[in-house]
Amino acid sequence: MSLRLDTLRGVGPERAAQLSRLGLVTLEDLFLHRPRRHEDRTARLNIRDLKLEMVGTIRGRVVTMGVSRFRRGGRSLFELVVEDGTGRLHCRWWNLPYMQNYFRVGADVFIHGKPISMKPRTMDHPETEVIDEDAESCLHLNRIVPVYPLTEGLPQRWLRAFAWHQVGEFASRVPDPWPPGMLPGRPSRAEAVRGIHFPATVAERDAARERLALDEFIALQMTLQTRRRTLEAKSTGIPCAGDNRLIKPFLRRLGFTLTPSQTEVLRTVRQDLGGRHPMRRLLQGDVGCGKTVVAACSALMALESGWSVALMAPTEILAAQHHRNFQRWFDGFGIRVDLRTGSRKEEGKRAEAGGPVLFVGTHALIEESCGMSNLGLVIIDEQHKFGVGQREKLLRKGAYPHLLVMTATPIPRTLGLTLYGDLDLSIIRHSPGGRGEVRTFVRGEDRLPRVWEFLRQKLREGRQAYVVYPRVEDSGGVGLKAVKQEYARLRELLAPSAVGLLHGRLGAEEKQSVIEAFREGRVQVLVATSVIEVGIDVPNASVMVIESAEQFGLAQLHQLRGRIGRGAHESFCVLVGDLRSSEAAERLGILERTRDGFEIAEADLRLRGPGELVGREQSGMPGFRFADLRWDLPLVEEAREAARRILDQTP
Questions:
Q1: Rounded CA gap, 519 and 429, in Å?
Q2: Mean pLDDT score of the chain
């Protein structure tokens, strides 16, 4: 199907250029040019049943036609009148006098459009087709009609007719990419190409879409599974299961007992770290479920075994928090903890020369200047903030080290199987006990005075609070508040409580200074952007107010909400937004109803789509033409199994 379109009849240089702008260069490009929608034009109405501004299709006979010309401006009007025994319909085309060449009085025609007037019934510029029983079965009307994405100068009818001819002549030659019998019950790829363009029924169109989506998912799963099989064939797992000499005292000094979920995950990780092949594991869990402790225990297994560990976090704030926690947790164990970020390359407590090291850092860990010898385990926190290439670059710092990927943003299953399909999955399903309940409220902007009074009351009780805004400074957007402007206002409004300011444009030292002041209680209210989404753990912070909340995604709001409820006090998250839009009110209402991050992630996927959730450039997510990650979980699972069968049969 590599035949070039510019070699086909009817495609001159101008048409070829227009097709190329749509990415249509070869026959395969054309066959995979998905219609934006299909219109069912088989259901015909009587003319008397047409409704104002409602799209409909009628069949009638031309009773009169003609062109009127106007002296002023040189304008013209071609008008066609048809009747079907129940009424008459006037069809008008402005400044298209040549349209009279397409019709004749007495001819039967299909007309598709929406009336702009009912006295008389009138349509402007409808789609029409003269009925010729010997013609190509009424390509544009009286069938399910594809409506394609277009570019300037390329008419819909021309592209539809062009696709009709090429599908009719060449589609039967489209080969199936998979061995026979791999997709029982599915149409062939040739049938799917025909069905996605010119289906006889809606069911045929849907079956064609599913088959072409399945092909996309299988191709992706083949890549993921081949990558995993190649890794296992080329490499042997580094022995990193440990001997418990560090983990046991670490767990004793924690002051709390691990949850059953944490214990089960660690049992699986230990098996992986002592297995034949390098571990490749994704650890999911809701906010506050205790993934960092699991990471610490996993790191200790490798460190006990004499291997160094690298932990990469997406922000300097989170890296600094991990560095501080691990230094405190591992104090007295003789383990060196190094911090590597863009602004700081500090070394933690040193052990004897030559001992294993825990490297904690940001993207700085993957720079060539950052050497890490004897690397046995790589841990990546908040994986969705990194690209696939960055993950691989860090792994190449060692000789096939083990990999533990963690995310506190629950990943919908379809995304998990496509983006991380080469990783094994573990889930921490229960949060540690001893934490206060988090209650969430959605409020309109008119309720802000009462929100601030509630916040002042909690501050008087000794609690701390976050106030979050979607942008750093005012850029002229209507109704969107910015953190810099609101900071000045809140300092007066919440006096005498001390108010701090935090956003991404501050320098690293300034950020850290503000965070430390908040952590130590010298600042009672932290006014911030979403930079606080990860990396800040202050148990006394029990209130969060998020203004312009409708500007954030659901998963991000859930992550922000996870900054509170980390202590024993009851906590309150107030989402303040413009609720005039029913969509915004519905979205925010999901957060008011549930704290289940997995349920929220699925809702976010349906509402915003995968590109918004993970960022295509960051994730390496393929650009699907036919697959839809919001609804296609059954197809992903079918493709995963089909790819396994295909690879098993491939020498």
A1: 28
A2: 89
